[in-house]
Amino acid sequence: KTALILTAVMGLSLLAGCDNEKQQIFKEAEKDLEQGSYDYALDEFTQSVNNGISLAVSYRGIGICQMRLGNYEDAISAFTSALSSDKVSKSVAKDLYLYRATARLQAGHLEDAMADCQMLAQNYDMDADCWFLSGKVALAMDGYDEASSDFEQAYGEDSSYDRAIQIY
Questions:
Q1: CB 127, CB 161: distance < 8 Å
Q2: Model confidence over 149-161: pLDDT tens digits?
Q3: Is 126 helix (H, G, I), strand (E, B) or coil?
Q4: What is the C-alpha separation between 146 and 151, in angstroms, rounded?
Q5: How many CB atoms sit inside 10 A of residue 41's CB?
Q6: What is the pLDDT of residues 93-151, one digit of tens each?
Q7: Using an 8 Å Cβ cutoff, are 61 and 26 in contact?
Q8: How many CB atoms lie within 10 A of CB 67?
Q9: What angle do CA 100, 102, 107 make, to 5 degrees?
Q10: Considering the entire predicted model, what is its pTM?
Q11: Residue 158, by phi and psi: left (phi above 0), alpha (psi -120 to 50) or beta?
Q12: CA angle 48, 53, 59 (to 5 degrees)
């Protein structure tokens, strides 16, 4: 019985070690993303997805890395996977829609980018960043009146000098 108990305890400690290692990879990915090491973070977030660690956040990290590396189609795919993950909080979903709309805008998928902006407007509290992005998409689609209205909303939410320069 003692040998069986010791074997069980050792097995559990080995599994716990694996989980700690998987969590460490995820933490390193977040750190590398924050530091701008996108290639390293991309590899680590991909490992985290394969390990099943914080799927929505890991896919989000992959998407951000892909965007920063100029791979907009891959970024769109990652953000879509993140939105499809279980247990995506409302604040994370809002962030994901913003990122996906930005990637879609950069990739030239203007209708899809506008659909994400409309999703944001219908389901989330719009802040200056949301209004600004919506205005950028409308402007890219030659919707000058809508862009003007969105930019006014953005400036109303954030009347800083930097926001004014962005809009200009």
A1: no
A2: 999 999 999 999 9
A3: coil
A4: 9
A5: 23
A6: 999 999 999 999 999 999 999 999 999 999 999 999 999 999 999 999 999 999 999 99
A7: no
A8: 22
A9: 90
A10: 0.85
A11: beta
A12: 60
Q: H helices within 36-143, ranges in order?
A: 38-51, 55-68, 72-84, 90-107, 110-123, 128-140
Contact 99, 129 (CB under 8 A): no
Residue with token string 């030659």 = 142
How far apart CA 168 and CA 164 sit, in angstroms, is: 6
- Both structure tokens of 16: 């716990």
Under 8 Å between Cβ of 61 and 34: no
Residue labelled with tokens 């890991």: 58
Q: How many whole angstroms separate alpha carbon 63 and alpha carbon 130?
A: 18
Residue found under tokens 């000058």 = 144
Contact status, residue 133 vs residue 98, Cβ threshold 8 Å: yes
Q: How far apart are CA 144 and CA 162, in angstroms?
A: 21
Residues ≥6 apart with Cβ < 8 Å to 88 = 56, 82, 96
CA angle 119, 140, 38 (to 5 degrees): 75
Which H/E stretch holds residue 54? none
CB 54 within 8 A of CB 48: yes
The confidence score (pLDDT) of residue 18 equals 53
